[in-house]
Amino acid sequence: MKKKWRFVSNGNGEEIGFNDPGIEIFSANSIPSMVREVLQNSIDQRVDPSQPVYVEFEIFEVRSDKIPGMKDLKDSFKKCIKAASGDPAAEAFFNQALEKAEHPVKVLRISDFNTTGLVGAETGEKGTPWHSLVKARGSSNKNMVESGGSFGIGKAAPIACSYFHTIFYASKVESITSYIGVSRLMSFEDKDAFGKTFITSGTGFYSSSEKLNAILHPFVLSNFRREKNGTDIYILALEDIENIEDTICFAVLKNFFISIKERRLSIRVGKRIIDENTIAADIYGLEDNVKKNTELKVYYDLLRYAGRVEDWLRIPLNAEEYGRKYDIDDEECELLLVKGEELNRRILMTRKTGMTLFSQGNISGSISFSGILRITGENMNRIFKAMEMPAHDAWEPGRCKVNKKFYKNAYDDLRCYLRNKVQEVFGHAAGDMESAYDMDEFFGDYAEEDISEVELTKRKPKATLRRNKISRKKKEVPIQIVEDPAGDPFVEKPIKNPKKPSDKMPIEGKRKEYHFRAVEKVLRATDMMHGVYELSFCMPTKKKSVLLEFKGIAEKCAYKIPLQSIKVDGLSESHIEVRGYQVFLKGLKKGSNVFIRFKTGLVGPMMLGVDYYEA
Length: 615
Hints:
By secondary structure, the protein is an alpha+beta fold. The chain has helices spanning 21-27, 30-44, 70-83, 88-100, 129-134, 156-160, 244-261, 279-284, 291-305, 378-387, 404-426, 440-448, and strands spanning 4-9, 53-62, 105-113, 166-173, 176-184, 189-191, 197-207, 230-236, 265-269, 272-274, 312-316, 333-339, 346-350, 356-360, 369-375, 480-481, 490-492, 515-516, 521-527, 532-538, 545-553, 558-560, 563-568, 576-579, 582-586, 593-600, 606-614.
């Protein structure tokens, strides 16, 4: 039969308006939402667990007459305008669609690899992945606990990014290649082959079959040709936003930094690659002094250093503290925590897939910290997946129609566990007022908005919030150590009127005898991925001993860098003493050039600093 757009009858039933609820969920933040949903689906279809899923995003333009069925689609737009009479928003949308169809059309191709592809395209049978994606609405075949989605609603996210509300799916599963178009418009009046008038259901399929099955041929709209199993999505008339590739990249970093760091996912956006080798540079390279960037950098530091560096905590679940009564076992989740200045007082929630969900607030109004909760166990994943909203941005026990009280208690108890654990490991910072009767739970949101004090007046029942903004002064930017193929060093120059570094770094052993001095140093990464660096400086004066402290500098706090080995040119081992992150040197002469090779216990890109003390 002829390939064409086919809008089926609604059978004299419900008429569908322009404001499709599935599309509306994602329309306000369409590009980031699309990235979340598409990448989550790809991860769920991973084939070889030893290799990451690889996903390409490519934007190109195509003449509208090269798009399959474009003439029929434009006719459908015109019929929608007629049906939308009296709905200004719908009329404007379809008039815009007609106008854009007269010019080259911007298309986004999203292709995944190391995935199953759309199994079932050749039969279209109910329950197959192809049927669930293309034809089912509000349902999904994803029953495994570790999957990211299960609502069948996320498939609307790519459609929300299209000025035509139209996409094509293409796939390869072994020898079966297929494609089909899906257009979600609105109900309109149409005629069948015999001229009989009917009202459509609002959804059309580009197909050669009355059963609306896939076309079993390769899909060609650009130079791309699929040779391996996987799925392609073509979003027609892609939404126009400024710096769209940067928007896609940030959505990838924000939502999937855990998956990428742990080699579950790698991405190409245009010519830019984001994978386990580049992600540190991608995140640390984000613009400073932007709140969302700052928070992402802290979360990434937590992922890298928690449990490996002192004061960056990794706390596995003890089911006696939380979970036993919900059949949650030990270590079904782990809590990563760090305390520092001006942190967001939130815990980033994640489940087994590694996609980030949302930041849980109302933890503490008096402790400046950040955290990540990683739910990895099967039972705990099942419980919290059941509470997850379709946009994956909240847990709502109320959406569970069976055993609602069970889910509410599980969530309430989890939040209580998180508050107690933060209080247990950090306590109150010096000078903070103690909370009365756990009032942090109620006033936590004000603390997160930089309100430094909450005052209860004696008059009852009124309570007054005194909002004192915290002063935030710009701090010195630390040197970022990066690979330098040209061999040009980055120079650490002393600041004017240097002050002794913060006493928040513990003073240990001989450290009390030493005094800080600002010294110009040259720090070079010779093999960053293996933690190998070189340090050189000129001795400014004659001293009996020099102390060097090696520190990593995160977005809002410092941490100690343990040294695995060190060699100082011209000094014997008897003149070198290493104490974790501290190195004591003796026998250095005034004016001598000191050259040090060292290896750290941490690898990959990092912000590295070396403080100089003398005695």
